Amino acid sequence: MNRVKKLARLLTVCGMVVLLNAPMAGAKSDPTGSVEISIKEFAIGVGGQKGEGVLTFQGQEYPFKMKGMQIGSIGKVNVEATGNIYHLDDLAEFEGVYFQAKASITLKETGKSGVFLINRHGVTMYLKNDSEGFDLTLGRGGIKIKFDKKHMTKTQKEMISKK
């Protein structure tokens, strides 16, 4: 068990060094929005993610759903994340596939991690997570985000349709 803890600490330190330096490109500008996300993850080497969240952009809230996969992970966790969005100028640029680099460790009940995501439009998210369950990750993957139009007002639907 002592070896597992040492390995977990080493992987966490290495991953956090990478992740803490990655968002510096986004941090040069002010955030253009923020998100709150709830995700369920399950993995044995390769895993899946499914969740929902709310984007706050220009004073309005927009619900969305997300699903994805990840390589380099083992465990089952529930994740609550918050973070900033950078380089989002148009709502139409928010939807799509985000690539992620992630380092996390959750042993016993709770853990903390950081996730850096970027899509093809250059929209960047840097999330800070609290998780419950068991998880050991130093990997990458992708998440597809789509607005949850079922839970939007007519005005919100019109805003995301504008280009």
What can you see in these coordinates?
By secondary structure, the chain is α+β, with helices and mostly antiparallel strands. The protein has one domain. It contains three helices and five strands. Strands 1, 2, 3, 4 and 5 form a five-stranded antiparallel sheet that branches. It is elongated and about 45 Å long. The N and C termini lie far apart (54 Å).
In short:
20% of the residues lie in helices and 60% in strands.
Keywords:
163 residues; alpha+beta; 5-stranded antiparallel β-sheet; 3 helices; 20% helix; 60% strand; elongated
Uncertain runs: 7-27
Q: How far is it from the N-terminal to the C-terminal residue, by CA?
A: 54 Å
| Domain module count | 1
The chain-level structural class is alpha+beta
* Integer average pLDDT: 78
- Count helical runs: 3
Quaternary state of this entry equals single chain
The total beta strand count reads: 5
Q: What is the percent of helical residues?
A: 10-25%
- The arrangement of helices and strands along the chain is HHEEEEEH
Chart the SSEs and their pairings.
Layout: H1 2-21, H2 24-27, E1 33-57, E2 60-86, E3 96-107, E4 110-119, E5 124-147, H3 154-161
Antiparallel strand pairs: 1-2, 2-5, 3-4, 3-5, 4-5
